[in-house]
Amino acid sequence: MKKAVILGAGTAGTMMSNHLAKKLPKDEWEIVVVDQEKTHYYQPGFLFLPFDIYQPEDVVKPIDDFLPSRAKRIMQKIDRVEPESNTVTLQNGDMIGYDILIIATGSHIAPKEVTGMMSDAWHKDVFDFYTYAGACALREKFMNWEGGKLVIHITEMPIKCPVAPLEFAFLADAFFTEKGMRDKVDITFVTPLSGAFTKPVASDKLAYLLKDKNIRIVADFAIESVNNETRTIHDYGGKEVAYDLLVTVPTNMGDSMVERSGFGDDLNFIPTDKCTLQSKVADNIFVIGDATDLPASKAGSVAHFEADVLTENIIRFINGEPMTYEFDGHSNCFIETGHGKALLIDFNYTHEPVEGSFPLGSFGPLKLLKESRMNHMGKLAFRWVYWNMLLKGTPIPFVPATMSEAGKHLEMSKHD
Q: Which among 43, 64, 49, 7 has a CA at the least distance from the CA of 386?
């Protein structure tokens, strides 16, 4: 019996377990999923928790509810991968052999990477919203906060869902407006990038949102430290920004088992072929989702599109055939802009976010790079799609893995 081992039971790992359960013959292949956690988190929902749009119970479910019945579940922390012997060593000393290994260990925040960020003020005056605990703590803070300088900050790229910090700023503007205290809250968006958006085309077209919402932007800010006594953040160039409440996105890093395994970059992301999703570590090791070093967004939609491509490539690899299915960096995501509206962006390795219609070509019904109520409803509806379709590997109608050009204005979007 051959063995396909999946490390991680988050979004990417769960999808791959379900895809492979449908493709690999039961009498030939055993599927093993390794993850020490019991709970699956709907991470896009963390954005909504501080603003009372979602309740905590909306974003948590048991991991085992979504894994295929044929998968063997091992609840242990991973110590390291040893490609030379095709084995995974667990923290308890057990070893698992594999014929195919899929690494889907994701990424996590590392606030200790910045001096002063992780201190007694953590989750009191300095918050994250990229973890369940952080989002819930911030939810409690916002219930009674009387206002002041709210600073939303990105430490460095890459991060999960690159637009989420900007969405947070927009939702904060709407939240405090609806509470009748927007005049008591000064919102500043601090980024290491030269603009608010990670993609220049989107940044140029959507900069008006920050101006209209009276959100100040401090760009090109490479943070050096957080001073909890003076409540200021400092960058290497000498700039400083004062805060009363700091909402930060700390450095995002891959799993520590990558470092222990001796492969990965400085942030523990794994060298991966950007088209085939085969690792550059060993031919029978594949990587998916946030664990890769791909020049693509670390987002659920990307993992979904990657899973379709990777499944076909693994089957071809097993059969000794060329891996002709190529991931094109496709990503699409809704960007909440507040007051019941959202934007939708769609892009890939070669095209910046484009204007046009989605997903049915010129028939829409969703508009790209334009605010609408329908886009907001699409973002909220995605939670149902996530729990009931995406995790289970069920195809989402009219949304192919590769970026469709139908209904889109591509003339000005192409880049190298």
A: 43
What's the rounded Cα separation, in Å, for the pair 241 and 234?
7
Superfamily name and number for 2-106+255-318: FAD/NAD(P)-binding domain (3.50.50.60)
Instruction: Convert the pLDDT of each residue in 119-160 to its tens digit.
Output: 999 999 999 999 999 999 999 999 999 999 999 999 999 999
Residue corresponding to tokens 């002709």 = 324
Indicate the pTM of the whole model: 0.95
Residue 252: beta bridge partners? Answer: 109
Other CB atoms within 10 Å distance of the CB of residue 45: 21
Note whether 2-106+255-318 and 109-252 share their fold: yes
Domain boundaries, the chain: 2-106+255-318, 109-252, 331-409
Q: Does residue 44 have a cis peptide bond before it, meaning omega lies within 30 degrees of 0?
A: no
The CATH code of domain 109-252 reads 3.50.50.60
Distance (Å, whole) CA 403 – CA 416? 16
Q: Could you tell me the end-to-end alpha-carbon distance of the chain, in angstroms, rounded to an integer?
A: 45
Which tens digits make up the pLDDT trace of 307-341? Answer: 999 999 999 999 999 999 999 999 999 999 999 99
